[in-house]
Design goal:
119 residues; mainly alpha; 6 helices
């Protein structure tokens, strides 16, 4: 893997860790054809829902796998994240992107997970 792609993966991971929900992962899977990759990646969604400290490493792993297997799908993920959190001079800080509803915090139902709303 070249350094440029590695940097893109790391940059994308930062945005995903800060702002993604399980629903966002589901959308990305459907849009890129990588639902199975995302659903079967060890501990990705579980570490997200429990707020585990290994979530960032799991995100890095799944992004790397997708980038290596299907570069166009990786570009699709980049575009998805850009649409969800466009960087403009007024929103250059990650905490200002996507709005308060997507900022990482525990849910109001169980006070443990990071899911925005339980069914």
């Amino acid at each position: 893997m070249d350094k440029g792609l590695g940097k893109r993966i790391i940059d994308l991971r930062q945005s995903i860790v800060a702002h993604f929900s399980a629903g966002d992962w589901e959308e990305v899977g459907l849009l890129t054809g990588h639902t199975e990759t995302i659903d079967t990646y060890p501990r990705l969604l579980r570490s997200l829902s429990w707020g585990d400290e290994d979530y960032a490493g799991n995100v890095l792993g799944v992004l790397r796998r997708i980038a290596e297997q299907h570069p166009k799908a990786f570009q699709g993920i980049e575009q998805f994240v850009e649409r969800k959190s466009p960087v403009t001079p007024s929103t250059s800080q990650p905490s200002q992107r996507l709005g308060a509803s997507l900022s990482p915090r525990t849910c109001s139902v169980c006070r443990r997970c990071y899911i925005r709303a339980h069914a």
